[in-house]
Amino acid sequence: MSGLRKRIAKVGQQVLDNYCQKGDEIRGRIMIPPIPDSKFIDKLPEDVGLEGQNAAERELQEGYEAEVKVFRCFEEVKSNVIVIHQLDYTHEQYAAFLPDHQCNVKMCKRGLDTHDCHQPKKNVEGETDFVVIGMNFVAVFEVKGLSLQSCTEDEGELKIKGCVEDAFRQRKRMVDLIRSVDSSLRVYEFTLLSNVSREEVDEKYLSDETLLFSEDLDHLVHIIESCEVSSSNALKSGIMKNVAWCLLGLWCIDQDNKWDITTCSLPKCIMDIDSKLRRALVTRKSVDEVAAEVNRSSGKNKGRKKTSSKKEYPENPEMVDAPSLFQNYLNIKSLTKDQLDIFESEERFLWVDGPAGSGKTIVMLGKIIHLALTTPPEKRILLIIPYGDRHEEYSSSPMAERHLNLLNNIIEHVTLCKKMSYDYKDNKNDTVDGLSPGRNGHSALIPLL
């Protein structure tokens, strides 16, 4: 067994012990990661005809949305299983399990004849959408977001044929890897066309038991239970643990063979999403720019040849460059069009409504900073922030301190803000109480001086 394979198994053992098991058993249905992680983040318009790079990006986005639908279905499973989403691996990592595996590159320059894989070590060799680890089985799922709307019969047939063949190749790579850990293990494999119904396909596809369609989304729980029942023969002690270690470790380890097992935790996932939203990393271009800057500062690209070709990005009409104020004070490079409209609005009263994480706070901070920079010194600006029912919650709130520090650093050596606490629960006749009808508690009042 190679050193890398041992390392992968060791990492997987840590993940299993810390996030998946209670004692010696899997503690119910475990999702890894606990929430879907989008790799295709440019949301392109659905009512506009797209071509080239934009069309390709929209297909990726639709594929990811299909995976999220399947992710939500797997969350309904009640049995003791581990569901791994988006398990990718490099050539080096795959070779740690199958050192003599064959080339899987479509249209390889070395021809169609069977030959050994020759990719660079760090190249991503494959990716599996979902791997389900049960008590006595493993199931591999490839999800395709293919839609046959507005396709002719011939076009639809070509698309389905291509999708099915591509999914088969992806499934086979993962199934071969799993069986290299233990050949006696029962491995099921499926391709799920989540946006295609049985009525839309030729009868020859309906006879393939590994093909699932949109109607099967409601039966995924039953399919997983059936896999468990069909594999009820007890395996040798330790086989499923060894398989789980290898697959969990493979998911957790990165292209440089480094790892952080906290990526399997819900708090880490939430913090990562919050960080991306705060920095407006919501387009492929902005993510790539930050990654390139990190690589430059760490010296990771040192010695690599510079390429003259410039990467093309999809045109995302919902994203715009942020005004310089956002870039200078909040390190925000992009805004959504809705955020920019709110920021540029000159309405005296403005109601901003949106779900958590939609960017309300960022755009309001931009308006506050703009007011602080443009308001004459003889005028005052009042910012009201509601907090909890106890004065201590406000006094010790890190949010209040963050806002205060931010606003006091707008102009160098000038203190713009001071903090006051107002208990309007005990002053019901005061006019300030009307600012939050029906709510008891304290508000933080921060006048810009």
For the residues shown, what is the average pLDDT? 80
Number-wise, the strands total 13
What percent of the residues sit in helical stretches (DSSP H or I)?
A: 25-40%
Share in β-strands? 15-25%
Taking the sheet with the most strands, its summary is:
6 strands, mixed
Give the topology string: H per helix, E per strand: HEEEHEHEEHEHEHHHHEHEHHEHHEE
Structural class: alpha/beta
Give the arrangement of secondary structure elements.
Layout: H1 3-20, E1 21-22, E2 25-26, E3 30-32, H2 52-74, E4 82-90, H3 91-97, E5 124-133, E6 137-144, H4 153-181, E7 186-193, H5 203-206, E8 211-213, H6 220-230, H7 239-252, H8 266-278, H9 284-298, E9 319-321, H10 324-330, E10 334-336, H11 337-344, H12 360-374, E11 381-386, H13 391-395, H14 398-407, E12 420-423, E13 442-448
Helix pairs in contact: 1-7, 10-12, 11-12
Detailed description of the structure:
- By secondary structure, the protein is of the alpha/beta class.
- The chain is built from 14 helices and 13 strands.
- It has helices at residues 3-20, 52-74, 91-97, 153-181, 203-206, 220-230, 239-252, 266-278, 284-298, 324-330, 337-344, 360-374, 391-395, 398-407; strands spanning 21-22, 25-26, 30-32, 82-90, 124-133, 137-144, 186-193, 211-213, 319-321, 334-336, 381-386, 420-423, 442-448.
- The strands form 4 sheets. Strands 3-4-5-6-7-8 form a 6-stranded mixed sheet, with helices on both faces. The chain has a 3-stranded antiparallel sheet with strand order 11-13-12.
- Helix 4 (153-181) links the parallel strand 6 and strand 7 (186-193).
